[in-house]
Each structure stands twice: as structure tokens, then as C-alpha cells.
User: Fold EVE domain-containing protein from Stakelama flava.
Amino acid sequence: MAHWLMKSEPDEYGWDDLVRDGRTEWTGVRNHAAAKNLRAMTCGDRAFFYHSACAVPAIAGIMEVSREWRADGEDGKWASVEVNPVAPLPRAVPLKKLKEEAALRDMATLKQGRLSVSPVSEAEWTHICALAAMGDAKEQT
Assistant:
């Protein structure tokens, strides 16, 4: 199972919207690297739901990929996946905190801040879960 970070502006579609809906199609990604990441996802992969472009950008919850990619848009060059909520984080992990952590210095989203869908290593996943006071991070993998 792979891990990911997926960004959404909470004014457009936030964690609470995903929880209310029970699942959503992650559409509208128009960046080649991010679309490649969507195509690499498999059912059961976990992803952090990250609120971007807001007063305090932060990771808010954990999602699961429930359907692998399909074409998004008429030209077929973009991709989308279906995700469903797994659990909110007990404590959101703000971007500022992510940047302060030496263990996360190579994290893709910190190196390429504009990338809306990025991979998260196992070590990064475990570290972020610990920052969010998840208890045993292995339970959420």
C-alpha cells in the first residue's frame, strides 16, 4: 500500500464535505506530475487530506482510494480517483509544523509546494501520524 497527500481548498471542498458525502471523485487536477501520481494509486492506498490556500494550511484527515484512476476530462489526458474518508486527525498538522520537522525535509509536498497530489514515504506517514497524536501510527496505515 502506498501513501499520498492530496490538497484541496477548504472553501471549495474540505474534509467536512468529504465526511458528509461519504466519498468523492478527486477531479480537476491539471498538473502532469500530480496526474501521474493519481494514475499510480491503487485501491486501499491511504492519503492525507490537506487543506490548502487557507489561513492555516494543514493536514486534516486520512482518506482511502476506493477506485483507481479513470480519465478526467474529454481529452483523456488527465486522471481522477475516488476516495472515501477514513478518519479525521485528532489534531490537524499545519504546514508550519511540517516545515519544522527535520524528518520531513525531503517530503515531496515541501519540495514542490504547488504539487496538489504527491507521494508520502512510509517514514513520513508514520512521523505525521505521530505529530497528529494518532497513537499507534501503524493502525492508520
Summary: Confidence is low (pLDDT under 50) at residues 135-141. The chain is about 25% helix and 35% strand.
